[in-house]
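Batch manifest, entry 17 of 40.
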Amino acid sequence: MNIRILRFIIGFIALVNVNNIYAVEYELEADELLKLEISDSGPTRINLKDEKINDILMYPQNTVEVVVHESGYLFIAP
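Output type: structure tokens
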């Protein structure tokens, strides 16, 4: 199968399956905690503009799978 056709099929499937994606921007203050909304039906990616996330502290009862990627993005899966 031609690689262009394969890319198109994968892209089309991705568009159909992820039609509920949205983004929220939060203000980050140095002296305040940041409260975020986490999806209960799909993965959540969190990144800070012009910054890299190195570590995270969460309440254990609220986590299922949390990964800090080497890129500095935080991925949370329900």
